[in-house]
Amino acid sequence: MTELQAARAATAQERGVPMLELRDVAMHFRARGRGFRSTTVRALDGVTLTLDRGETVAIVGESGCGKTTLGRVSLRLLRPTAGQVVFDGEDVTRTPERRLKPFRRRAQGIFQDPFTSLDPYMTIGQIVEEPLVIHGAGAAAARRERVRWALDEVRLRPAEDFVDRFPHLLSGGQRQRVGIARALTLTPDYMLADEPVSMIDASSRAEILALLGELQERHRIGYLYITHDIATARHFAPTAAVMYLGRIVEQGPTRQLISDPLHPYTKGLLNAVPEPDPANRLAERIVLPGEAPSPANVPGGCRFHPRCPAFMAGLCDVVPPPIVRIDPLRSVECHLYGDDDHQRVREAEPPPDDTENTAQDGETV
Ligand SMILES: Nc1ncnc2c1ncn2[C@@H]1O[C@H](COP(=O)(O)OP(=O)(O)O)[C@@H](O)[C@H]1O
Ligand code: SF4
Ligand SMILES: [Mg+2]
Predict the structure, then answer these.
(1) Using the 8-state DSSP alphabet, how is residue 35 labeled?
(2) How much is the average pLDDT of 221-234?
(3) Cβ contacts of residue 233 below 8 Å, gap of 6+?
């Protein structure tokens, strides 16, 4: 961490401000529907989340529920349709790209596919050095030294053996280590890890997660860890948020979410986890009963109602459920818990209007 980073982080902590805050974030895309009609894809709808330095929060949910979109918004690779992205108390939601550099130095990402995320025509050394070049960090010799340091940190040792190689000569696990080294060179405070081990051979997965854990201890990195597998989130993330169709439906300590799930969807996810054969687990897709949900066609009332075994007609299909605080660490969005014994964080309210999203950075709608 540079002195500037340390000063900023310290100030934010003194002020009691979380490192990363997503406030009521919505991300709606315009997409081509049937024929020439366009539809609104509500990938995120009112997501609120905080992450501190040195903390790991898992985002868990089925494919298509909005996890990657949430991650991309958190890195401001996407500008949300509504809501705010706040980093160390500074609102970066609408900050233009040319003024985002200080934020980009501190917020980096590791992505799912280590086979397509590394440029095949660049050497490992060039790939890891690139963020330093973009951010003008140090002279050439200092940058080369930094690259060696980063490769050593991710245990690609000796670093000299890797700098001149090309990605295709490496295994999936080694490529993901290169991705981590690249994200690490600027010693960020925040790292998005979007399914970082789901495309890696089973034998390397635990090692990569252990490596991320060590790096967190050494550098106090905060991770948003995206996964479709709630059971493995337990080993890596003390806190988890379960997403369904663009909303967080339950949040709390991961162990409690697993041992005592509250939301009917969380219960369904746990039932859908295949018997623990660690060799296959991460490659499995979760399949819950009922029609696969579509963010282009969000059901009224509770979004989960068409698939919910506890569905209450006349309520769940009409009124969006309140967010209910169960205890200081746990909250759930479901009518089953909306009684007077629990504190309502948000009263039942209609979902926000469709809002067309056209303001995008780096992505076509
Ligand atoms: N650029 C985009 N344009 C239109 N729809 C999108 C875009 N990006 C994501 N989506 C849609 O948003 C939904 C959530 O996607 P995503 O965030 O990738 O989910 P997950 O990572 O949980 O699988 C999906 O229905 C996806 O098709
Ligand atoms: S609000 Fe109703 S439909 Fe939704 S999860 Fe709770 S019980 Fe099921
Ligand atoms: Mg994804």
Answers:
(1) T
(2) 92
(3) 58, 60, 225, 227, 240, 254
Among all ligands shown, which has an atom nearest to the Cα of 61?
1
Instruction: From 258, 264, 251, 237, select the one nearest 345 (Cα to Cα).
Output: 251
Given a contact cutoff of 8 angstroms between Cβ atoms, the answer to whether 195 and 112 are in contact is yes
Place of tokens 């401000």: 17
Give 154 Cα–ligand 3 centroid separation in angstroms: 24
Nearest alpha carbon to residue 184 among 147, 210, 158: 147
Per-residue pLDDT reduced to its tens digit, 2-46: 555 555 556 566 668 999 999 999 999 998 877 778 899 999 999
Give the per-residue pLDDT at 345: 62
What's the fold here for domain 3-102+190-298? Answer: Rossmann fold (3.40.50)
Return the ligand 2 atom nearest residue 249 CA.
5
Give the residue-averaged pLDDT of 47-76.
96
Summarised one tens digit per residue, pLDDT across range 98-117 is: 999 999 999 999 998 878 88
Atom of ligand 1 nearest to the CA of 41: 5
Tell whether ligand 1 has an atom less than 6 A from the beta carbon of residue 246.
Answer: no
Distance from the CA of 292 to the center of ligand 1, in angstroms? 14
Q: Cα(161) to centroid of ligand 3, in Å?
A: 33
- Kindly indicate the confidence band of residue 52, based on its pLDDT and cuts at 50, 70 and 90: very high
Q: Which residues lie closer than 8 Å to 197 by C-beta, 6 or more apart?
A: 176, 204, 205, 208, 209, 282
| Substitution candidate for ligand 1 out of 32, 59, 69 with most atoms within 8 A of CB | 69
Give distance in angstroms: CA of 9 to centre of ligand 1: 32
